[in-house]
Amino acid sequence: MKNLIIRYAASVAKPGQQFLVLFGAPGVGKGTFAKLLIKDTKFNHISTGDEIRKILKGNTSQSFDPKLIATIKDIVAKGGLVSDEIVMNILQEKLKEPESAKGVILDGFPRTLRQLDLYEKILPTNVVVNVTLRADILLEKLAARRTCVGCGTAFNICDINRDGYVMEPLNPKKEGICDACGGKLVIRDDDKKEVIEQRMKEYEEKTHPLLERYRAMSAVIDFEVKRGKKDYPRLWDLVKQQLRV
């Protein structure tokens, strides 16, 4: 089955719908802040990587196009990569969900200039949050992540208190065991040193250049993480100045 083609329109955004992009290096905390922002904005959280994983597990909403689901499963089964066009189709399907009525939080997308080109043809960007963290702190935190093989719940055994950075560990109650389901906690392949270094290199080469475009087209909030989730009230104060919430 060939890749689907984006259903282009002048804009697929609904009246009043707002678009917030969470931007930043892998592991900087975009997903954590997204979960907190969802509660305050009542926006839908869209992580295209997560959506692809849901599709492969059969956990999509009933509104999803079955042809799109079949296409993605076929590509992955054959060892292929999901194209930018198909990722845009996934985004458009997510916009149909009732949770997207007020707006969406885009987490990890767009991640290349080509994806941003495709995105800009049909959707606006109201505000971009550029989440940053000092490189050595970020690498230390990434290497300390532990993920449940059963339910995917994430923990972090890193305890940082230096140079103005105070980040407490998120330890399980029992070492190596998930609090949520009792599953085994492991270091994901993505969190191994050599993979982390490669992901950071790709981010600098492919994703970081998007910032220049974002600064020219929409409001960008530069937000340095110092205390992990405890920084959220400061972030929310900045975001709500830019959105209608």
From TrEMBL:
Pfam families: ADK (PF00406), ADK_lid (PF05191)
Keywords: Nucleotide-binding
Keyword Nucleotide-binding among record annotations: yes
Adenylate kinase active site lid domain span: 145-190
Molecular functions per Gene Ontology: AMP kinase activity; ATP binding
HAMAP family tied to this protein: Adenylate_kinase_Adk
Name the record gives this protein: Adenylate kinase active site lid domain-containing protein
Organism of origin: Paramecium primaurelia
